[in-house]
Design a protein that fits this description.
Layout (H helix, E strand, L loop, with lengths): L1 E6 L2 E9 L2 E3 L1 H4 L5 H11 L11 E2 L2 E7 L4 E4 L22 H8 L9 E3 L12 E4 L2 E4 L5 E5 H13 L3 H12 L3 E4 L4 E2 L3 E5 L8 E7 L2 E7 L6 H4 L11 H15 L5 E4 L7 E7 L2 E6 L4
Parallel strand pairs: 6-7, 7-10, 10-11, 15-16
Antiparallel strand pairs: 1-2, 2-5, 3-4, 5-6, 8-9, 12-13, 13-14, 14-15, 16-17, 17-18
Length: 292
């Protein structure tokens, strides 16, 4: 499914790779209790929580941004042919869904000018590369891949201690190809694109703020994963690098954009994944934007 919408003069397409149940709520949110899940089950099902399996449904998706000057891909999903044995939905996947989505948006791999990775986790870097004659090569031959320098350094150090599969197949090949641009997580690009430091989930995670003709949107990446964390911001995600900082970042982000016109483009909220934070007591809720 490809969803198109606009922010001022910027066109954005949501490129969906997968939308499958696959995350155990108690494994993914270690501090979640059975009672709390039961209290919220009635509104989580069926869009966020699959009634049949009891698993969270997290879309795997990118945002394709076209501002009239550049074509930008924000995060690059899971990818094909990647060894991910702990994630059955990702492991050695071989389908055309992602490339079909780009094609429906009218874009080919050679058209991408920038790939901005909010952080370096496997479901945000997967299509950075493709397998060609047994080698991992950049999927987007003309693109500059934008990474936080601090984030990249952290994972390179960890990879040197013990191999990280997605570093080997999805990150280091584009570094070695000379296509990576290292930036700070508050870097400002021309034409209304600003990175926002949102650390916690990873050491130097960033969100991407877009502004055009008085309209704004933010691609939030993984600072928040599930609607349940809107109403209960204290719920930490198992992959969070610094759990205390992740909670503080998540709450501050929602507080900043709550009750504003800024469109939030989430990474893993259910379809259509975009909308606005609204207040709910001392916490928050998410109001989906169903149509452009």
């Amino acid at each position: 499914m490809t969803l198109s919408f606009s922010v001022g003069d910027i066109r954005i397409d949501r490129i969906l790779e997968q939308n499958l149940p696959g995350f155990d709520p108690f494994e993914f949110l270690p501090t979640l209790t059975k009672d709390l899940l039961e209290e919220n089950r009635h509104w989580l099902e069926p869009r966020s929580l699959d009634p049949a399996t009891g698993l969270f449904i997290f879309p795997m998706q990118s945002y394709l941004v076209r501002d009239g000057r550049h074509t930008i891909l924000i995060d690059s999903c899971v990818g094909n042919h990647k060894e991910r044995p702990t994630r059955p939905n990702w492991h050695l996947k071989d389908d055309t869904h992602y490339m079909d989505g780009l094609a429906r948006a009218g874009v080919g791999v050679e058209d991408i000018d920038y790939v901005m990775c909010t952080h370096l986790h496997p479901d945000h870097v997967g299509w950075n590369t493709r397998l060609e004659n047994g080698r991992w090569v950049p999927t987007f031959p003309n693109a500059r891949y934008v990474f936080s320098g601090k984030e990249l350094e952290h994972w390179q150090v960890q990879h040197a201690k013990a191999e990280i599969a997605y570093m080997t197949d999805s990150v280091l090949p584009v570094v070695e190809a000379g296509q990576v641009v290292q930036v700070t997580s508050d870097h400002a690009f021309a034409d209304g694109i600003q990175l926002l430091p949102t650390p916690g989930h990873t050491p130097d995670h960033f969100a991407v703020h877009l502004s055009s003709n008085g309209h704004d949107a933010v691609m939030s990446g993984d600072l928040i994963h599930t609607l349940l964390q809107c109403r209960h911001p204290h719920l930490v995600a198992r992959p969070d690098f610094d759990k205390e900082q992740a909670v503080a970042t998540r709450r501050a982000f929602m507080d900043r954009y709550c009750e504003t016109d800024t469109l939030i483009c989430s990474a893993h909220f259910p379809t259509p994944s975009i909308g606005h934070f609204v207040r709910r007591g001392d916490a928050f809720d998410f109001k989906f934007r169903e149509r452009d």
